[in-house]
Specification:
By secondary structure, the protein is α+β, with helices and mostly antiparallel strands. The protein is 28% helix and 29% strand. A 5-stranded antiparallel β-sheet has the order 1-2-3-4-5. The protein is globular.
Length: 89
């Protein structure tokens, strides 16, 4: 699963499921053994759980980089590697 960003100990990854397209654009966030999945067509957690502070950071980052997330998503759907996205600072 390609890593597209990393900040404050949080790793953001995005991948395409082989053999079947995903229907809702989303990314995976990992922090200290915990994981959550966030949709970004309408920004929301759709699975998993991160600590509150890390979830706030992930949501802020996703809001700032919405357009870049969409570009990564479209690249993956087209069989290409996603680009890296600037971390939250």
């Amino acid at each position: 699963m390609p890593e597209i960003s990393r900040f404050y100990g949080i790793v953001i990854r995005m991948f395409v499921e082989t053999g079947a397209p995903h229907h809702r654009p989303h990314f995976h966030a990992y922090y200290q053994g915990r994981a959550a999945i966030y949709a970004f067509d309408e920004l929301a957690r759709i699975a998993g759980l991160l600590p509150v502070q890390q979830e706030r950071l992930v949501l802020a980052w996703a809001e700032i980089h919405h357009g870049e997330l969409l570009k990564c998503w479209l690249a993956l759907q087209g069989g290409k590697a996603p680009s890296r996205i600037e971390p939250l600072r």
